[in-house]
Design brief:
The protein has helices at 90-99, 114-127, 182-194, 211-223, 237-244, 263-278, 317-320, and strands at residues 4-11, 15-20, 23-33, 36-37, 42-45, 50-66, 71-76, 103-108, 132-136, 149-155, 169-172, 200-204, 228-232, 249-253, 282-287, 292-295, 298-303, 306-309, 313-316, 323-329, 332-343, 346-351, 359-361, 365-367, 374-376. The chain is an alpha+beta fold. The protein is built from seven helices and 25 strands. The protein is globular and about 70 Å long. The protein folds into three domains: 4-76, Clp1, DNA binding domain (Jelly Rolls, Sandwich), CATH 2.60.120; 86-253, P-loop containing nucleotide triphosphate hydrolases (Rossmann fold), CATH 3.40.50.300; 279-376, Pre-mRNA cleavage complex subunit Clp1, C-terminal domain (Elongation Factor Tu (Ef-tu), domain 3).
Length: 380
């Protein structure tokens, strides 16, 4: 049985409480999290997430932390070593206020705080009564959509975590690593941006930032007509120059010293996302001949005991068992499922989606029936 640690902390003005989930905090006093006033509120911090609670005056915070996962520390924002809290992003906010960009791209390696910065920027924009949209293009560690998928939404109120948002539109890739599917991702980002009616769109990207990854991000910036790119963390300034011919403003900021996730935590966060989008699923059967199957925009056909993709890729039927798929209607992703089995002309899936669909979008991911483990299939 997992124990919980309870604490009541008194904070002074200028203190920053770094709270790592799983944890709950009840706040009293002038306390903000990512620009959002949380006085009198109960705050839940998810597993693997760290949030900065910033005190602007005397405050009291009651903590309940799950031992083994969560934790906390307190720092002074005026300390010369302080690299936490929203103050490290002031240059970004100043640049946004000066240049008023329409499309902002966030670029940085894994665990550099892109999602947290996206949350902060959107909260500031909401407070300014701007219509702000988010495009989450991280197919491996995304927040708005499940793994292997991208999502977009309008941000209608301030939030503490992008996972509190519900996507208005999805774009399914079917992979959880961007290398090799860069063109598909860029096409998807353009589609998602065009689905939004926003004064400002924030594009949160994946952590693929080696030389090839940065060139892919530069192509994305050009194709989506980004007018600001924010570079987080330790990225070579010379490599940053590839963006300057394509955008109006390039801003570089340091990453927070508090952000670090283990490989296990990243996997656990993906599993949580699968469960979020598949929870409460039931068995649904359908005739395979009544649906179209696609993989990365390529047509797939079920033939005998195999799935054949564009006459080149053959997927044995036993590899379909447990495959994570998207369900689409008229090319729009409507829901998600686990393809449980295919027997003759009848397929059985586990899904919580109850509407119509005409297309099954395949992936390279297999999930156990209880969604406790994921496996990557050796496909294209």
């Amino acid at each position: 049985m997992v124990g919980r640690l309870s604490r009541i902390l008194s904070l002074k003005a200028g203190s920053i409480l770094l709270l790592k989930g799983r944890a709950t905090a009840r706040c009293k006093g002038r306390v903000t999290i990512l620009g959002m006033d949380v006085d009198g509120r109960e705050v839940n911090v998810r597993h693997g997430k760290t949030l900065p609670l910033e005190a602007h005056g005397p405050a009291t915070v009651s903590l309940s932390i799950e031992e083994g996962d969560g934790g906390y520390s307190i720092v002074d924002k005026d300390s010369s070593r302080c690299r936490v809290g929203t103050g490290i992003w002031q240059e970004v906010i100043d640049a946004i206020k000066d240049s008023k960009p329409k499309r902002i791209m966030l670029v940085g390696a894994t665990d550099t705080g892109k999602s947290t910065l996206a949350t902060y920027i959107s909260n500031i924009a909401v407070a300014e009564r701007l219509a702000v949209g988010i495009v989450d293009s991280d197919i491996g560690q995304g927040d708005i959509a499940p793994p292997a998928c991208m999502g977009s939404c309008m941000v209608r109120e301030q939030v503490l975590d992008l996972r509190d948002l519900k996507a208005d539109e999805y774009y399914f890739i079917g992979r959880i690593a961007p290398a090799g599917v860069e063109d598909h991702i860029i096409r998807g980002v353009m589609h998602l941006i065009n689905s939004l009616h926003a004064d400002m769109v924030i594009v949160n990207t994946d952590g693929y930032v080696n030389e090839q990854g940065l060139r892919y991000k530069a192509r994305m910036a050009e194709d989506v007509d980004a007018d600001m790119v924010v570079m987080l963390g330790d990225i070579d300034y010379n490599r940053m120059n590839i963006f300057k011919a394509r955008v109006v403003v390039v801003v570089r900021v340091d990453t927070s010293s508090s952000i670090q996730k283990s490989r296990g935590e990243r996997i656990a966060r993906r599993i949580e996302q699968y469960k979020r989008f598949l929870a409460g699923g039931r068995e649904v059967r359908f005739r395979t001949k009544s649906k179209e199957f696609v993989m990365l925009c390529r047509r797939a056909m079920l033939m005998h005991s195999s799935m054949v993709v564009d006459d080149t890729l053959i997927i044995p039927s036993d590899m379909l068992s447990g495959m994570f798929v998207a369900l689409a209607m008229m090319d729009r992703v409507m829901g998600f499922a686990i393809l449980d089995r295919v027997e003759g002309s009848i397929a059985t899936m586990i899904t919580n989606y109850e509407g119509e669909f005409d297309t099954v979008m395949l992936s390279s991911i297999r999930l156990t029936r209880d969604m406790s483990m994921e496996h990557r299939l050796d496909l294209i």
